Amino acid sequence: TTSPLAGRVALVTGASSGIGEATAERLAALGAKVAVAARRKDNLDALVARIAAAGGTALAVPLDVTDRDAVTAAAEQITDQLGRVDLVFNNAGVQLISPIEDLQVDDWQRQIDLNITGVMNVIGAFVPHLTDAAVAGGSADLITTSSIAATRVLEKFSIYSGTKAYISQLTRLLRVELGRKMVRVATIEPGMVDTELPDHVTDPDASKLMADLIHDIDVLSPADVAQTVAFIASMPRHVNLTEITILPTAQA
Ligand code: NDP
């Protein structure tokens, strides 16, 4: 039996670590060709080598998704080299939590630039390719990474939560417009996943909160989330899983 992902061509952003890296590997193992994007070129090259060694096909696309021209150029490069793009995992994001009164305005801006503008740059450059793929009769998927922070009230998470609430609501709205064109739109809302995400947090209380959670319970692995993304894209073309919350069993 052929894998439902055989012949698909995917872009994964945030593929140099964590959820994106694991998802790129999973999609490639299931037969998709995968373009992997992030800033750290060395990590991407190592990932591409691992995928190739396992018999898959991958292309490293080092870029900063907040740079709209770079994202536009990447769309051209990927479609030239891999033929098309019919699966976009719009995943790169950063979490910099702090109390609002600390006025960490640079951190606020970094989250807005990456989690919102970066995601929109990818949508602007790749939606035309997704609709092309759907018109040609194949499956097409736009999958974003939101968070349980999109709906939960977590102290100090205000800016991050706001960016993820934007992603969840954006996904609902895009689904209506693009679903009509047979492009599936989905978002995943993970709880705690063991990745590099907490490493960037500077607020000591917030860092401790996440470190404690990782220490106390069996949190999700990036591979758990990757499996979910692959599942969404593997459904028959007329089935759109729209919003999936993935929590570690023991996380409240
Ligand atoms: P990581 O920090 O491990 O991964 C983040 C990825 O984004 C890295 O590959 C990083 O690569 C990339 N990235 C950062 N800045 C840019 C940029 N300017 N341009 C391109 N790529 C960039 O964390 P996760 O895997 O956990 O995060 C992935 C997504 O999952 C994020 O959207 C996050 O908000 C979300 N999430 C994570 C949860 C968790 O508990 N871990 C829970 C819920 C949601 P590089 O630095 O090389 O550019």
Automatic annotation (TrEMBL):
The keyword Isomerase does not apply. InterPro entries: KR_dom (IPR057326), NAD(P)-bd_dom_sf (IPR036291), Sc_DH/Rdtase_CS (IPR020904), SDR_fam (IPR002347). It comes from the Bacteria. Keywords: Oxidoreductase. Pfam families: adh_short. Coiled coil: none annotated. Residues 8-191 form the Ketoreductase domain. The keyword Ribosomal protein does not apply. SUPFAM superfamilies: NAD(P)-binding Rossmann-fold domains. One of its GO terms (molecular function) is oxidoreductase activity, acting on the CH-OH group of donors, NAD or NADP as acceptor. Signal peptide: none annotated. Belongs to the short-chain dehydrogenases/reductases (SDR) family. This is NADP-dependent 3-hydroxy acid dehydrogenase YdfG. It comes from Saccharopolyspora phatthalungensis.
